[in-house]
Amino acid sequence: MTGTAKRTVGRVDLVGGGPGPIDLLTLRAWRLLTRAEVVVMDRLGPTDIRDHVGPDVEIIDVGKLPGHHPVPQDEINELLVDRARAGKRVVRLKGGDPFVFGRGGEEVAACLAAGIPVDVVPGISSAVAVPQAAGIPITHRGVAGAVHIVNGPSEVTEATLSALRDDSVTTVILMGVGALPRIVSDALHAGVPADRPVAIVERGHHRDQRTTRSTLGSVVVDAGIAGVRNPAVIVVGEVARAGLLLPDPQLAGDIVL
Description:
By secondary structure, this protein is of the alpha/beta class. It has helices at about 25-35, 75-85, 105-115, 125-135, 160-165, 180-190, 220-225, and strands at about 10-15, 40, 60, 90-95, 120, 145-150, 170-175, 195-200, 210-215, 230-235, 255. Strands 6-7-10-8-9-11 form a six-stranded mixed β-sheet, sandwiched between helices. It has a five-stranded parallel β-sheet with strand order 3-2-4-1-5, sandwiched between helices. The model is unreliable at about 1-5 (pLDDT under 50).
């Protein structure tokens, strides 16, 4: 037989890593990680994976900080395609769920355009898991029957203002700490009640998790006093009211100002 053997194309799996703890990964996510030859990982989600993959696995950190993206999305897309074209089994490990503000759709499109086999493994979104860690159900019978999920850095739309005005809707804001003053100002000017409950849950499902409870009219000042920092999830709505489920929120590490 003559000629060179054809190189086998690898594959890319976009894996939702959930809010951080390894044991909140799905079984499918864990299986793919244990078989991966390359792991391209974000800043959030399970970051302590080095002890759980083989010593020869290439781990590439492409994590973004607010306002600082050292590896632009186009380069991440090229990285996934390049490693898969080299015949590697690539896991793109993302925080939360790949399709909830995770740019998973862009990465799937890039792989498909390059002829790379790609699949998506759902993960537990921080929009649900982080409030839950603080005892906040984003829906609760008789309190909230709908959820509106917002990308904090985006402009505040009429749809978001409508959700904030509706006391039967929970608004969950991801990546919103830096944008909180703008969001609050727009909401108050649009007639959202100043006494609407707000909870900011920092580092949900981690040992240093904490929750700051406030109201829409006071939360910017209260967040400054508490020194709130990313990563955090902001919950606006009646489900964020202190004492809804937990009789003494301070026992759960809440800050009530």
